[in-house]
Amino acid sequence: MPSSFRRPPRFAAGCAVAAFAAALSGPAWADPAPAYDALVARLAETPLITEAGALLDAAEARVRQARVRPNPLLGLEAENAFGSGPFDGYSNAETTLSLSTDLELWGRRGARVNVARAEADTASRRAVLVAADAAGRLALYYAEAEAADRRFRLASEALTLTLADTRASLALVEEGREPLLRGIQGQTEAAAARARLDEAQAERDAAFARLTGFAMLVRPVTSIEQSLLDRAPALAVSDTRPAPAVLVAEAEREAADRRITVERIRARPDVNASVGVRRFEAEDATAITFGLSVPLPLFDRNRGNVEAAQADFRAADARLQGARQEAEADRVAARARLASAASRVSATDSGVESAEEAYRLSRIGAEAGRISQLELRSSRAALIAAQNAALDSRLARVRAEIDLARLDGRAPFGAVQ
């Protein structure tokens, strides 16, 4: 075979080796992410938890405000002054200083406080839900970052194996034991492996950036030292308490029920009482005044607001029923997915061991000339697929644990919140 047809594949393999070395070269330092449990303990610093805490503080402040009685009204009124005839000037004037206030009859204040308390309870339960969601997102970003880092390493390993097989294939081509097509195929596979490595590197950088941003870390994360993918969650029966979403729906239903009472009370007359002192300038005398004022419910009886509150209650009750059904179904599904994922992890780990042994024997056979290059490529592809399947099974196990932990109102993997 002419040498001019043999050099390009060998030159391409050399370029591939150089490109692989350049791809792996990078900063000598690496800033590892803090442990997952440590990040969970710092979730209070994240904007999600901060916002939920602020909303809870606002709701509790509204409870305190609801307990406050309305301010009395101080009035000063002058009559029969600065007119004409006997009312010229101020000598015959009548001056009244009065103090009036809303009596808040019919349980107005108590109903108002009950609504504020129900809304504060809703905010409190929603804060628990937000905390569980935040812990779940943190676990997901942490696991995805670790998975992306492992995929990058697998892609690097796959490129190393591909280049090694390509070099072996080129050696056989040099010896005339394999056609030139095998060298060209090896070059194509090496290029595809380099492309997958570049894609894996981009995914890894993006996953590290998401973890850094959500965890509010000062320095960008560049590596994962403490694994979450290898951390097996407990398969015991999860908590039987209602899911946080159900608790929120229950609190919202209770608040809607109490608003109906408030609107019904508003339909009753708002009674105001007043007491004062009147000064009679002409007689140089004073007298006490007192009175009650009650609006006549001729037109506005608050029926629209009562009906609206009742409709809101029916909607809240429907949401509660839906939340209960959905939570129960999701909990059963999450338990099933978690058990299935745990079994899948064990199976894929066994598959990786078998694929590694098969590839090792294929390499030995190919070097001895007993196995063709096509069989070697097939065993290498099977090994790469098995390694990625094992990684996917671990990520699926983490996601199933995240779903179950969110329904239980806890941090995934039992981390302390």
TrEMBL record:
InterPro entries: MdtP/NodT-like, OMP_efflux. SUPFAM superfamilies: Outer membrane efflux proteins (OEP). It comes from the Bacteria. It holds the Pfam family OEP. Residues 1-30 form the signal peptide. Keywords: Coiled coil, Signal. Residues 306-344 form a coiled coil. One of its GO terms (molecular function) is efflux transmembrane transporter activity. Belongs to the outer membrane factor (OMF) (TC 1.B.17) family. This is Cobalt-zinc-cadmium efflux system outer membrane protein. It comes from Brevundimonas variabilis. The lineage of its organism: Bacteria, Pseudomonadati, Pseudomonadota, Alphaproteobacteria, Caulobacterales.
